[in-house]
Specification:
Layout lengths: L8 H16 L6 E7 L14 E10 L2 E7 L4 H34 L12
Antiparallel strand pairs: 1-2, 2-3
């Protein structure tokens, strides 16, 4: 394995920040959705147009999208977890782009021929 010094400073910084996020911050892959609904109770304010607003976490489970209700006391925590995921996802894209550039550059140069093994 080669030392990290062959990586650009930008990529080293992205990898370092990604490692910090993964080790220190909770993350959730998903999106936050604010929904306004009516409850249907007779005499409720929502029947007059003042709908009940609540927050949901939209996540993908296999091929299905699921909404998970987020109670108000949990809103700040869940927002932070989703924000952390988005930052980590951006860093992964950055590292992947750099790796792809190295691969494409190396692909233009002929691969070294394997050295024959010496018998003992």
């Amino acid at each position: 394995m080669r030392h990290r010094s062959f990586l650009s400073a930008k990529e080293r910084a992205a990898r370092s920040r990604l490692a910090q996020l993964l080790h220190s911050s909770p993350l959730l892959r998903g999106s936050l959705v604010r929904m306004a609904r009516t409850c249907g109770k007779p005499g409720c304010k929502c029947l007059r147009g003042e709908k009940h607003v609540s927050l949901y976490l939209a996540i993908r489970q296999g091929s299905r999208r699921t909404l998970v209700y987020v109670p108000p006391p949990w809103e700040a925590l869940i927002r932070g977890c989703v924000k952390t995921w988005k930052e980590a996802d951006g860093l992964i894209d950055e590292v992947s782009r750099a790796q792809l550039e190295r691969f494409l550059k190396a692909k233009r140069v002929p691969a070294p021929k394997p050295q024959p093994r010496r018998s003992r």
